[in-house]
Amino acid sequence: MAEEPRQPHESPQESASSAPADAPAKEAASGVAADGSFAGTAGQAEAVLASETGDPGAPIPADAVDPELLRLSVPIPRRHPGLALAVLVICGLLLFRLRTELRYALQPTEPRELGSVGLTIKNPQLGDAVGQFVAVSGIPDHRNALAFDPKGGRPRQHVFRLLGTASRLLVTAPAAGPPPFQNRWSGRLRRFDELSFFDTVRAAWGSTQALRAVDIGKLRAMVPGALPVPFNTTDRAGEPLTLGGQQDLLVDVLFPDDVRVLLSKEKVPSLADADHEVERFGLPHGPGVETKDGYGYVLRLPTPGLERQRVLAHIDAQGVWLWHRFETYRAPVGAVQVTPAGLLLPGPDALPQPVRYRVPAEPVAVEGVKPASPSVPVVLLPQKEPSTLILWEQLEAVQIHEPMNIAADALVVVHGETPKSVVWTLPMAALLVLCALFNLWYLARALRRPAASEDVDAA
Predict the structure, then answer these.
(1) How far is 343 from 330, CA to CA, in rounded Å?
(2) pTM recorded for the entire structure
(3) 329 and 388 Cβ atoms separated by less than 8 Å
(4) Which end of the chain is more exposed for a tag (fewer CB within 10 A), N or C?
(5) Does the structure show a pLDDT above 70 at 256?
(6) Mean per-residue pLDDT for 236-248?
(7) Distance (Å, rounded) from C-alpha 170 to C-alpha 407?
(8) With contact defined as beta carbons under 8 Å apart, do 159 and 152 qualify?
(9) What sign for the dihedral angle of Cα 441, 446, 448, 453?
(10) d(CA 308, CA 256)
(11) How many angstroms separate the first and last alpha carbons of the chain?
(12) Helices (H), 247-305
């Protein structure tokens, strides 16, 4: 067979390698890729279509590319205007929630002095200080304080009233504040019902019976006689107080000549042994009372002076617990009388009362009878009397029980919450404003675009 003529200096390998090198150029010129797909311009598509159909009016093949479609511009992806409107609503709600924090963050760093709570609570401008950085001073009611552990690793907080404010001014502060300890608090003044735990605190205090002390000075200055019913007076904080006839008065009395002692059961196993130990003190004593911790007694001390101090030091050296004798008498308001010497209460036969002891009278000396030895122990005897007189000198307090009802317009000072603690709301608000402005611009642009396209179509 005759071989085909070849170009000079051209090998079979060179001819095979030259074919792929010319393929891209042919694809670029025709617009048709090697796999049959079209990747050219609209002009190339028209040329391809004319070459495939031949005549201008010939039918278009099914796999041909329409040049009109290639001339259409690709639309820019757009969001729905409703999404921008939703973002605007969310930004507006967040800014509305941050409005109070923003106003507080812009306040001065020095607190506004409101002074003592006794004058503050009567000031009509107290309501104008809500939401401001203030400082108040007063007497806290730590006895009825509530403790709670907030989330986020913050220290335990205490919520307590300030006495003399009719439960209208409260304070929330850390349980153990740093020294120096003083009855002054500074922080944000807020409405009590704005706190997340206000309903829990209100319910807990509503079921708590708190003690409220009557002003003894005004009680002592009254005309002698029975207390009027209803009894209108003031408490020690100066707040008005109205008592009904059946409401009980709690009269706290200090017996200066008596002392209570308690002998531990670890040292004395029985009541008889405790009686023997008490008799060794050589003092008049009441009957022993057994408790879960030991045996308790009431001792009558000598007259004030060195002898009394010596006896107290001797009792303390024996490892015996001792403390002053305080007793609380309970009587209704309608049964209490005021006298120049003190308060006159019904006796133990009419109402249950603490025991009042007396030293038994010394026996009358009889001729020919040897008197008893002075070392014989003396047992105190309970007094039986129709009425009990509480001397003004023995009176420690006159109190009543009442529920802790928080006022409807109560305010609370959040101690330690300064304007610097909420300064983070400023950049947050700036970001929300920028986000709202961007979405507002996008929404306006989206609403103008359909009108512009309709004008073009009409033209």
Answers:
(1) 12
(2) 0.64
(3) yes
(4) N
(5) yes
(6) 86
(7) 10
(8) no
(9) positive
(10) 11
(11) 74
(12) 271-279
